[in-house]
Specification:
Layout lengths: L1 E10 L2 E11 L4 E5 L6 H9 L6 E6 L5 E4 L11 H11 L5 H10 L15 H13 L5 E5 L7 H16 L3 E5 L11 E6 L2 E4 L1
Parallel strand pairs: 3-7, 3-8, 5-6, 6-7
Antiparallel strand pairs: 1-2, 1-4, 8-9
């Protein structure tokens, strides 16, 4: 379980988060909407430890593993998608080659393609970013604008992936502008003026 209590964060004089609280249970799909600059990415960065909150608390279980796609994914630009994913998976010794190949094929990407990721389109890079967030059997998954640049067929594939993750009892939080009909979210929230509320 992921529990966030009264997160506050300011950048200079700008108060971005004014008291964000959220409880996310295993098997829940949660959608957070909000205008650009509303603080969606900031919440994810605090959960993953990339940023420190001014105050508030983030609690998860000792066995929880967080996977995240936040803003634009960075890669080893002159290596293939598979080489990139193997490199990332090996950092924590959690690389599963067969699962990673299956995920690439799910998104119509060829695991044996040696093309450098620098030549990938925005949508293709985004799909690799989604894959790295889920390929290590992470059970808390944070996806920031995951469908940016992705075509309609790939959005359907993304919806299938999320519904599969839900069945596997994973917690998935998606921050995006998109409303995807094929995804039945358990919570739909809005981030307005630094606080989360039901849509």
């Amino acid at each position: 379980m992921l529990k966030i209590t009264d997160l506050k964060k300011s950048f200079g004089r700008k108060e971005v988060l004014q008291g964000v609280s959220l409880t996310a249970e295993p098997g829940e799909l949660i959608h957070i909407s909000g205008i650009n600059g509303s603080g969606k990415s900031t919440i994810f960065k605090i959960i993953t430890g990339l940023l420190k909150a001014d105050s508030g608390e983030v609690i998860s279980g000792n066995e929880d593993i967080v996977g995240a796609l936040i803003e634009n994914p960075g890669f080893l630009e002159y290596e293939s998608a598979m080489t990139n994913l193997r490199f990332l998976g090996d950092l924590k010794h959690r690389f599963d080659e067969e699962k990673t190949k299956d995920l690439l094929q799910h998104f119509d990407l060829d695991p044996d393609d040696t093309q450098a990721i620098a030549k990938y389109s925005v949508g293709m890079r985004q799909k690799v970013g989604i894959i790295q967030a889920v390929m290590e059997d992470q059970n808390i998954i944070l996806l920031d604008e995951p469908t940016r640049g992705i075509d309609q067929e790939s959005i359907k594939q993304f919806a299938v992936l999320l519904n599969n993750l839900k069945r596997e009892n994973k917690t998935v939080i998606v921050a995006s502008h998109d409303q995807i009909d094929e995804i039945n979210y358990d919570q739909r929230l809005q981030l307005i003026n630094g606080t989360l509320s039901d849509e």
